[in-house]
Amino acid sequence: MIAPEKQIVMTRREARERLLELLFETEFRADETSEEIYATSAENREIPEDDYVRAAYFAICEKREEIDAVIGENSNGWKPSRLTNISRSILRLGVYELLYEKDIPASVTINEAVELTKKYDEEKARAFINGVLNSVKNTIEAKGGKK
């Protein structure tokens, strides 16, 4: 853990990138707990302590089955297991924010997911990520949820 005087303040975009790195890494370390992955990754890659990154990472790991079910329901027959590791990680982050981060507007979540896709995934993945997250947003809104 970084001492308070050495704590680095990240923008939400930087925090999302660190979170995406953790989620992606988790794909390859199925034999370890989320706590072990977080601790090792934070130390080895010197990830700054950030409340959003920590809380979101553990929440996504805890709610992964539910998040994956939402992805499956909104991805036109694509099961999360068929997606690339990076696409699946971006979608998990986006769906988590849409479902559980009430203070983040859906349009911001979707835009940030598309930006992460531009930076880390194949070009053809952008439209898919955008479409799945818009479908999730529309489902949430139809139920009277977040805008």
Structural overview:
The structure is a single chain. The chain is mainly α and 147 residues long. It has a single domain, classed as N-utilizing Substance Protein B Homolog, Chain A, CATH 1.10.940. Helices cover 66% and strands 0% of the residues. Helix 4 crosses helix 5, helix 5 (85-100) runs parallel beside helix 7 (125-142) and helix 6 runs antiparallel to helix 7. The protein starts with 11 loop residues before the first helix and ends in a 5-residue tail after the last helix.
Layout of helices and strands, plus pairs?
Elements: H1 12-26, H2 34-44, H3 51-62, H4 64-73, H5 85-100, H6 106-120, H7 125-142
Helix pairs in contact: 1-3, 1-5, 4-5, 5-6, 5-7, 6-7
Termini gap: 36 Å
Alpha plus pi helix count: 7
What is the 3D form?
globular
SSE series = HHHHHHH
What is the fourth-level CATH superfamily?
NusB-like
Largest sheet: none
Q: Per CATH, what is the topology?
A: N-utilizing Substance Protein B Homolog, Chain A
Helical residues, percent = 55-70%
CATH class: Mainly Alpha
Strand % is: under 5%
Poorly predicted residue ranges: 1-6
Q: What is the count of β-strands? A: 0
Structural class: mainly alpha
Overall number of structural domains: 1
How does CATH name the architecture? Orthogonal Bundle
* C-alpha Rg (nearest Å): 15 Å
Averaged pLDDT, please? Answer: 88
